[in-house]
């Protein structure tokens, strides 16, 4: 079974206003792309207000949401109105039984319904994200790409990152490289390298005769740290400088100690960036990072 979920007390979370203040500080420092992720951001009450505030930042060029898709059917129109440009949806399987097992309580039908509602809203792009494991969904990668092609979605396949201690599978035995996935897809699809870029770590291929692009995020087999200009802010306000390292700065503490002083917040961000690690050192059988992706953001 997946790792047990625990939820943080509200007092430990940044308020939406504090998150908007952090986003504003980054924007004033030159950041022009923001992605809101989780956990699952759409379960946060009044989350549309955060998107609206962020989308109004004059320098922001792209506002993206990463979601599990469970709330899209009811919230996609409001998200479009609030200024969200692109949506990424985590979708590891199209098997309803397996989907429920992996998500604990999730209903695949609701996610697929949400995707169709979102498609009608006219977002600039909708992309599926799938983490591939050998005995879990490696045999479904062609089915997932076919689904993406039928709906004009893009899709990214992600090598599992060794974050958090787990018991349900042996990471080294279950690991599937991007190269293996590409070889599997080549048996069914005609695909070729694409020069499409999002500014992120994905390397894309184009499916012939389709608008669908296939991305590969390969933290193990193709270290992309030299191209990384990303940082993450957790729901607690921790500025995480790298997924594969523990360095962080508590921006929530900075805000609460200096209410209304954005310059001090910006100074804290600039100082933190100077200690951003050169690279990560993931080993499949040697977990050094104890936090899970659901507490970091994908």
Question: Beta-strand level of the residues, as a percent range?
Answer: 15-25%
From the spread of the alpha carbons, the general shape counts as globular
Which runs of at least 5 residues are low in confidence (pLDDT < 50)?
Answer: 284-298
Quaternary structure annotation: single chain
**Between the first and last Cα atoms, what is the distance in angstroms?**
20 Å
Give the % helix: 25-40%
Question: Would you write up a description of this structure?
Answer:
Pfam families: Mob_synth_C, Radical_SAM. Its cofactor is [4Fe-4S] cluster. It comes from Sessilibacter corallicola. Residues 1-192 form the Radical SAM core domain. This protein is α/β, with parallel strands linked by helices and 298 residues long. The strands form two sheets. An eight-stranded mixed sheet has the order 1-2-3-4-5-8-7-6, with helices on one face. Strands 9-10-11 form a three-stranded antiparallel sheet. The chain starts with 15 loop residues before the first helix and ends in a 25-residue tail after the last helix. It contains ten helices and eleven strands. The protein has a domain at 1-29 and 231-298. The radius of gyration is 19 Å and the shape is globular.
What is this entry, summarized?
Helices cover 32% and strands 17% of the residues.
Write the SSE topology.
Layout (H helix, E strand, L loop, with lengths): L15 H13 L4 E4 L10 H9 L6 E6 L4 H10 L4 E5 L5 H8 L4 H12 L5 E8 L8 H11 L2 E6 L11 H4 L3 H9 L4 E3 L9 E5 L5 E5 L14 E2 L4 E3 L7 E3 H7 L4 H12 L25
Parallel strand pairs: 1-2, 2-3, 3-4, 4-5, 5-8
Antiparallel strand pairs: 6-7, 7-8, 9-10, 10-11
Helix pairs in contact: 1-2, 1-10, 3-5
